[in-house]
Specification:
single chain, 142 residues, mainly alpha, binds protoporphyrin IX containing FE
Length: 142
């Protein structure tokens, strides 16, 4: 696999371009989740929750699609190095936990039950995505 995608790291601008796509994806994902989750906490009560969710959540998912695609291509360019990076491995575990937390939020129907559990799930969500971003940035400093 290294041989086939090795050009991604040797190419003059492919890797930085992928990092830019990665950061645009992060802005879409985290930006829309913050908006939606603050509404779950009762901010912006004038905004009906479901129409807001119908706008913000697909944008957050589009952001994750950009992140996943650019991230996997960056990974393919240097798999051994990244698998040897504790920050990278921890980051992937945190991404999975954040995905499970989001699935749990929707599976229990938290959109219609804005109770203490739903609010707790939003705090866990923001905490996990923040931790993912910290790990993502740390990769380059290991
Ligand atoms: C879904 C799977 C993901 C993969 C495979 C992945 C992979 C990567 C890789 C390979 C890098 C470059 C590391 C480097 O060479 O410096 C990176 C950087 C980064 N990632 Fe991810 N990532 C993923 C998801 C995420 C998510 C969900 C976030 C945030 C919510 C995130 C935040 C970051 C940040 C902040 C950086 C540093 C960007 C920079 O320095 O330009 N990543 N990621």
């Amino acid at each position: 696999m290294r041989h086939m995608f090795g050009w991604i790291v040797t190419h003059p601008w492919a890797y930085p371009a992928l990092e830019v796509v990665h950061i645009v994806g992060i802005a879409l994902l985290v930006g829309n989740l913050v908006l939606f989750e603050l509404r779950v906490w009762g901010l912006g009560r004038a905004l009906p929750l479901r129409p807001l969710a119908r706008l913000a959540l697909p944008l957050a998912l589009a952001g994750f699609a950009l992140i996943g695609t650019s991230g996997l291509l960056m990974f393919a360019g240097q798999p051994q190095e990244l698998l040897a990076s504790r920050s990278f491995v921890l980051k992937m575990a945190l991404v999975m936990l954040a995905g499970l937390n989001a699935a749990g939020f929707h599976a229990r129907g938290s959109l219609d039950r804005l109770d203490a559990t739903a609010r707790l799930q939003t705090v866990v969500s923001l905490g996990l995505w923040l931790a993912v971003m910290i790990c993502g940035r740390w990769i380059a400093y290991e």
